[in-house]
Amino acid sequence: MAGDKVEILPDHIRLTLGIRDVLVLRNHDAVPQVFGPTLMMPGQSFQLPFEQPAVYTFSCTAHASGQMIISVDPFPASPLARILWRTQELWWHAHLLAIHLRYRYDI
Description:
This protein is an alpha+beta fold and 107 residues long. The chain folds into 2 domains: 1-75, Cupredoxins -  blue copper proteins (Immunoglobulin-like, Sandwich); 76-107. Helix content is 25%, strand content 32%. It has 1 helix and 7 strands; from the N terminus they run βββββββα. It has one helix at residues 79-105, and strands at 12-16, 22-26, 33-35, 38-40, 45-49, 54-59, 67-73. Strands 1-7-6 form a 3-stranded mixed beta sheet, with no helix packed on it. A two-stranded antiparallel sheet has the order 2-5. A hairpin with a 2-residue loop joins strand 3 and strand 4. The radius of gyration is 15 Å and the shape is globular. The two termini are 20 Å apart.
């Protein structure tokens, strides 16, 4: 039902400067949603670039908790740090895929 609180959007998103540092949100709901100071109408997209590593907290009406946390990590400096970053990213994407499949197919 439109406007229902359904946890398919993660409440904590990790970004990395220089690799993936722009958050893109799309409102696929049939009702408006608020993200931070921005009102997103149905079908509307919003892009938010980050330039500093930090942890940001935004209000978000798409979450039951009413907030979303964005962690922006610095660019991995050494080759080993980049390998560890890629390993964490693989795990993170597998986790998000599992959440999506549970939601989509009610597993």
